[in-house]
Structures are given as C-alpha cells and as structure tokens.
Amino acid sequence: MISLKISFSILLVVMAINSIPVKAAPQFDMFGGYDILGVCINNCAQCKKMYGAYFEGQLCADSCLRFRGKIVPDCEDIGSIAPFLNKMELH
C-alpha cells in the first residue's frame, strides 16, 4: 500500500513538472555557436507536439542525427516536414 502511495506521489510530481511552461532559448555549443543538432531535435519535438500522431517524431530525430542537423525541420514549412508526416488510416 505504501509503495502505491509513493508511486502515485511520484506520478503527481512528474505531471506537475511537465506542466510547467518552458521558455525557449537558443542552444549553443561549447565553441559559442548554435548547437544546430540540438535545435533540429527540439524542432522535431515541437512538431510532434503540434501534429501528434500525424508526425513521425522518431524519424525526424533520426534524420537530425544522420545529417548532423544540416536539415532542420520548421513546423510551419510543409516542405521541411513533409518526409515526417504520415496519413492516419481509419478502419
């Protein structure tokens, strides 16, 4: 019973932390330039939040790693996110 209470408490804390709004800030690498790979992965996460199941976030993040952030998705530019969109089929 106690472990259930602890698990529930941890769940509530995690949910509270996840609901805190985060202000976006530019990411910098250790040389003072933009961390383009981090920007790319963050954009993938943002697009996933915006488009939900219609957006393949894991495929997007894998592309960031494969191309080392050279192709950064812009959630408002259909051309840059087209490879990561899918059609949801209703059955």
Automatic annotation (TrEMBL):
Residues 1-24 form the signal peptide. The lineage of its organism: Eukaryota, Metazoa, Ecdysozoa, Arthropoda, Hexapoda. It comes from Culex pipiens pipiens. It is found in: Secreted. Keywords: Disulfide bond, Hormone, Neuropeptide, Secreted, Signal. Disulfide bonds join C40-C64, C44-C60, C47-C75. Neuropeptide that triggers the performance of ecdysis behaviors at the end of a molt. It triggers adult behavior patterns: larval, pupal and adult ecdysis, and plasticization during the molt. One of its GO terms (biological process) is ecdysis, chitin-based cuticle. GO terms for molecular function: hormone activity. Belongs to the insect eclosion hormone family. InterPro entries: Eclosion. This is Eclosion hormone. GO terms for cellular component: extracellular region.
